[in-house]
UniProtKB/TrEMBL annotation:
It comes from the Bacteria. The lineage of its organism: Bacteria, Bacillati, Actinomycetota, Actinomycetes, Micromonosporales. This is Aminoglycoside phosphotransferase family protein. Keywords: Transferase. Residues 22-222 form the Aminoglycoside phosphotransferase domain. GO terms for molecular function: transferase activity. It is an enzyme of class 2 (transferase). Its EC number is 2.7.1.-.
C-alpha cells in the first residue's frame, strides 16, 4: 500500500480512496486498479527486462509514439506522465512504474475486422514514410527443431525499402480491451515497424489460424489503409521473430505458454502456403503502397 501511495505521488495523483486491487493475467508486468480523487487509474510495475541496459530509453521512446497516437484520437487509455520529468517511468522502491487512466472493457474480445480497423488508425497516426524497414531476426530458431527452423528461413528477407510507421508493435488479443470500440493497451513495444508486416501479424493473431478469416482481415486492412499486402512468405517474418523471442523467454518462465507459442509457430510452418495464397477475386497484391 505504501509503495502504491508513493507511485501515485510521483505521478501527481492523490492517495487511494480504497485499497488498490491487483489485476490478474499479466505475465510480463504487475498491475493494480487504483481509485483516487482524480479518477481510476492502472498502476503497472515493470518486470520483464526492467533491469537491462537500455530498457528505460526504449520505454521512453515508445512513450513518445504512444502520446502521439493518443493525441491523434486512437482508442487507447490516456497515458499519465510523471509531472516532474514528463517521462513515462518513475522509480519507486527499486522498481519502475507506469500509470494510465483506467479503461473498462472485455479482455481478448473483438473480431479480426475490429483489430485491423484499430491498426489502420494507429498506422495513419504513425508518420507513414518510405524507409528501410526494421529487420526482424530470430537467431536461435534451430533449437526448436527443423520445422520451426525451416519456417524462420523461409520467411527471412524483405525489400530494402517499405512503408514504415511508428506503431503499437504488439497488438494481439492480450493487449486490447473491447468496450464501445476496441482499445489498444500496453504500448511499451511501440516503435517503427513495417506496416505490411504488422498488418499480417495482427491478422494472423486475430484470425485464430483460419486462413479465410486471415484473408478477410488483410483485405479489410488494405481497403482502410490503402496499403497492399503481398502474398509472399517474407511478410510473416516479423511475426515469426516476435513469436520466437517470446518462445525463448517463456521457455524459462512459463512452460505452458512456451508450448502454446511453439504450437503456433509449428502450425504456421505447416500451413504457410494456405496463408500466402491470394484469395479468389483479386488477391492481395494490387498496385498500392506496401
Amino acid at each position: 500500500m505504501v509503495e502504491v501511495v508513493a507511485v501515485l505521488e510521483c505521478f501527481g495523483l492523490s492517495p487511494p480512496l480504497v485499497a488498490p486491487v491487483p489485476v490478474a493475467g499479466g505475465l510480463s508486468n504487475e498491475l493494480w486498479r487504483v481509485q483516487t480523487r482524480e479518477g481510476v487509474f492502472a498502476v503497472k510495475r515493470m518486470v520483464v527486462n526492467a533491469d537491462r541496459p537500455g530498457f528505460v530509453a526504449s520505454v521512453e521512446a515508445s512513450f513518445a509514439v504512444e502520446r502521439r497516437a493518443f493525441a491523434a484520437g486512437v482508442p487507447m487509455p490516456e497515458p499519465v506522465p510523471a509531472p516532474s520529468t514528463g517521462c513515462a517511468l518513475a522509480a519507486v522502491g527499486g522498481s519502475l512504474f507506469r500509470v494510465h487512466r483506467w479503461v473498462a472493457g472485455r479482455a481478448g474480445a473483438g473480431s479480426a475486422r475490429e483489430a485491423v480497423e484499430l491498426l489502420a488508425r494507429i498506422h495513419a497516426a504513425g508518420g507513414p514514410r518510405r524507409a528501410p524497414p526494421p529487420c526482424p531476426a530470430w537467431t536461435p530458431a534451430s533449437r526448436w527443431g527443423p520445422l520451426v527452423a525451416g519456417l524462420a528461413e523461409r520467411v527471412a528477407g524483405q525489400p530494402e525499402r517499405l512503408l514504415v510507421v511508428d506503431s503499437h508493435g504488439d497488438l494481439d488479443r492480450k493487449n486490447t480491451l473491447l468496450g464501445d470500440v476496441l482499445v489498444a493497451l500496453d504500448w511499451d513495444a511501440a516503435g517503427p515497424v513495417s506496416a505490411v508486416q504488422e498488418a499480417v501479424s495482427v491478422a494472423l493473431d486475430w484470425s485464430r489460424g483460419d486462413p479465410a478469416v486471415f484473408a478477410e482481415a488483410v483485405t479489410a486492412y488494405r481497403s482502410l489503409s490503402g496499403v497492399a499486402v503481398p502474398a509472399e512468405p517474407w511478410v510473416f517474418g516479423w511475426w515469426v521473430a516476435a513469436q520466437g523471442g517470446w518462445l525463448d523467454y517463456t521457455a524459462e518462465h512459463d512452460p505452458g505458454e512456451a508450448q502454446r507459442t511453439l504450437d503456433r509457430l509449428r502450425r504456421l510452418a505447416t500451413d504457410l502456403d494456405a496463408f500466402t495464397s491470394p484469395p479468389a477475386g483479386g488477391g492481395r497484391s494490387g498496385r498500392r503502397r506496401q
